[in-house]
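To whoever is on call:

I kicked off a structure prediction for a single chain this morning and the downstream step that reads the tokens threw a length-mismatch warning. I double-checked the sequence; it's 198 residues and nothing unusual in it as far as I can see. Pasting both halves so you can look.
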Amino acid sequence: MTLSVPPTPSSGAVRWAWRPHLPRQPAEPMAREWLAAELGVAAAALPLARDPRGRPRLGGELAGWDCNWSHSGDGLLIALGRDVQVGIDLERLRPRARALELAQRFFTPTEVDWLHAAPSAAVRDHAFLRLWCAKEAVLKAHGHGISFGLDRLRFEDEADGLRLVACDPALGTPQQWQLHELQPAQDYLGAVAWRSSL
């Protein structure tokens, strides 16, 4: 019996994959296997290391590529792109009793107002996770992660999804960033973000 694997989804300059992943298991071995297959090298030979902040980086002849991954619940998202800085985030959908409290602490006032205007707790929780994934994807691509500050970038919800409209100059300009929202499996939300590294 063979297991067919669907083609890797693409978001322009970036490829991404969803994989089932057991909770509390290291994600790197599975990410390494997928990255190696996409890049045509043996997993053991993949020049993958962590920078001082713990972010994965490809080196050697593959230094022109960037990768990132995120796991939540029993899922794993992996992203790969050439000549870009890429970040990806995944969150499991579930009720978030502290969504507004967290938003007031970590999001911008405009984003908090948007969440307060949600017609129900379920809609609010969904919007909160969309924002969280988008922010974390950009900050992971930047290389600092959420320690940089989730309030240092602001998104607005538009007809085609969330769009970065303001950010700290250390992140560049909003126009440099691409964002693609994902729903890779039932009960999961994610986002992949990237900007050119050229």
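Update from on-call: the warning came from a stale cache, not from the record. Cleared it. Sanity check on the structure: The radius of gyration is 17 Å.
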